[in-house]
Amino acid sequence: MSVTSLRLAPAAPGARIVGWGSSQPDQVVTNDDLAERANTDDQWIRDRTGIVSRRIADKDTLLVDLAVDAGAKAVADAGLSPSNIDTVLVANCTMLTQLPNAAAQVAYRIGVTAPGACDLNAACAGFCYGIGMASDLIRSGSAHNVLVIGAEKISDLVNWEDRSTAIIFADGAGAAVVTAAESAATVGIGPLVWGSAGDLAEAIKVVQPGNYLTQQGQTVFRWATTKIAPVALRAIELAGLTPADIDVFVPHQANLRIVDAIATRLCEAGARPDMRVARDVVHSGNTSAASIPLAVDHMRSAGEISRGDVLLLVGYGAGLGYAGQVVLCP
């Protein structure tokens, strides 16, 4: 009996990020703007979340619109043209329609021709999931240049009279272009650490009637502040580094208290006192899958991240799911 042998695509030694981009709505909503409607006040919001303001899209702006803007900026930042992109991944959990997906629409509007295009839903961990998938697609030879976008229009799912959610969530998109590393020495994306805690899936969910997002804040806070630091440390270990090698820590921007608690755990494990920590949540709110690339792009624009910096990305949230990896800034 003859054995059929199948040919595999040429593999790459690894992948690296070569461009970033982001997009936010123009409308800034302050804590005072929310105070009367959500029965709260500025100090109460700051004390519990660290958030001062957030960006909210108007009713005519779609998740796809934000994703297109961020994605096009990332492609330009990478020095590529849309024709160079062969795969588009859009991480999101707030598309109001299941069909069509966001990715194919985004690719078409950016000018990417006939790419592999799909959405992935890992909620607030979605961008890290997407970077991990893009890296593995490239390493296997299934893709060459992948556009990964985290985009959310969470305002469509917010009950603006529910202060447990109305004060936190916001809209936006962030993107990165992932391409093949020329050699092992130029690999810029470390191994993905990911997982989930499905026993706590009910802690963040969309409920009917109303199609509103709800969350058990204390449950999520306890889980994130105890379970995510070990994930971050494992991502560092798998990348062959130590906590002292990390220049910039960019966690999901869920809540400033959570961000600072995880950063403290990393410092206790050996991270440097001068490790820069993303605190974009203060003026962007929680944008779920968009929060990590938004924070990176904002820090780059502010000169807080430089070429060659070692970044630790860690996403966590609804599902409950988590993911993280170490990457090098282009």
From TrEMBL:
Highest taxon above the source species: Bacteria
Pfam families the record matches: ACP_syn_III, ACP_syn_III_C
Family according to the record: Belongs to the thiolase-like superfamily. FabH family.
Organism: Amycolatopsis rhabdoformis
EC number: 2.3.1.180
NCBIfam families for this protein: fabH, PRK09352.1
Protein name, entry field: Beta-ketoacyl-ACP synthase 3
Domain Beta-ketoacyl-[acyl-carrier-protein] synthase III N-terminal stretches: 119-196
Statement: the UniProt record of this protein carries the keyword Secreted: no
Involved pathway(s): Lipid metabolism
Gene3D superfamilies: 3.40.47.10
GO MF annotations, alphabetized: beta-ketoacyl-acyl-carrier-protein synthase III activity
Domain Beta-ketoacyl-[acyl-carrier-protein] synthase III C-terminal: 237-327
The entry's keywords: Acyltransferase, Fatty acid biosynthesis, Fatty acid metabolism, Lipid biosynthesis, Lipid metabolism, Multifunctional enzyme, Transferase
